[in-house]
Amino acid sequence: MNNDLTFFTNEPNATLLDVNYFLNRGDKYVLAFLISKVGWYLLTKLGTDLRGYFYQLFINMMETLPIFSASDSQKAPIIERVQTILANPDSPDVPCLEAEINKLVYALYSLTPEEIAIVEGKN
To answer: Which are the contacts of 26, defined by CB distance < 8 A and separation ≥ 6?
Structure first.
């Protein structure tokens, strides 16, 4: 999603190098939030900027993230898009799916066009 912070769910036999953040629960809704523009915006405000888009995050910071407590029907379209991306990460459809995730997250948070512009760095 055009950022240098990568989150992923843990997979069997995965090898982690360097500093990594993973979701032990495999929660694709939370994963979608973290890789969305809203998630990225909030993480850059909470984390310590080490060197131009390299952020250091600690569990106490992650615990303060205001992840919207969505209903199953609100989560379903977001999770569906994440699963599609994870199933075929090299697909040319990924940028479109990521944009759709962003729009769904914006709607969950009832963001105004002005707030979306801030999150997207257009202000």
So the answer is: 9, 10
